[in-house]
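Morning run. Coffee first, then this:
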Amino acid sequence: MITSQFYSSKYFSETYNEARNKFCDAAKAANAKLETIELYSQNCRNNSLYTDIAWLGNPKPHNVILHSSGLHGVEGFAGSAIQICVLKNLPVLRNEDALILVHCLNPYGMINFRRVNASNVDLNRNFLFSSDEYSGSPNIYSKINSLINPDSPPVFDLFFLRALAIILKYGFVAVKQAVANGQYDFPKGLFFGGIELQEELVNYKEWLLKNLPLVKNICAIDVHTGLGRFANDLLLIEENCSHSDLEKLQKHFGKERIKTPNPNKSVAYQTKGSISQAIPQLLNRAKVNFLTQEFGTVSPISVLFALREENRNYHYGKNDQSYSSVKIRLKEAFYPSSNIWRKKVLFRGLQLVHQSTKFIF
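And here it is:
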């Protein structure tokens, strides 16, 4: 039985290499089938980069619980801790089920405490199926590009006051949606979706098509941080979810946790090129229920400021003490050091996996 008192700091890591070693050791101890995918295009000095996949249960399953972490690099520490905890506290699987844990889809971002990969691409805006889709930007984004993506070294520039003026002009919901939707015109900007499918997602796409082509049902969970109230989690589903599926998900996982990405109805927003949209298209023979588990940290404006300053330093600043300080701010915005936050992440993350193994597809 999982209780709210369940917590151990041993599941959390402070570096990518520590997290990977813990995950692989736990997978081997759990007698999971462990597969490693190496990345070759992401340049990272003195470090090889890997996505590791642990498979437990039926080798030819009808139903799959597919749990992924680290799509947004620095956000991967929370998902990694959950996955390591799951491997140490395995749920009971039905005979026809498999539990698959995909550890760190964006190792470059995780090792460098960035949200994006080495090409500055947001992988959760990159999972598109046509080259024609890698174009365009929201109108408001283009108008405020100079504010959120200044092309100069960091200086005090009244960001919060200027951001308030933008919000008053366009409205908070409209600005939130425009900034986070995904853009394809500003390669050095925030939420850049790239110009082609990135190697990380090419590899994952090939793995999914090779290993899960005949699966009938998938409950997919992708762990993220930075959205919502501190230490609380939301389970985001796609806007096109049918009413019957919505009722089923709410009944099983809790009505208060299930939210749509409609920016007018929740703290979330709609995105282009997300993994939650891509996997149901990719594995279209299966019934896919996709849950994006979001753990809240700091306020939306503080998250945006942390992203802006880190991105600005990365492209135009100097690799000095000021860069270290913005790295610390970014890490705290997506991976708080608070034991209260980490305890809640572990409890809710492990609870969700155990709940998923009992989901009636």
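The first strand starts at residue 33 and ends at 39. Good start to the day.
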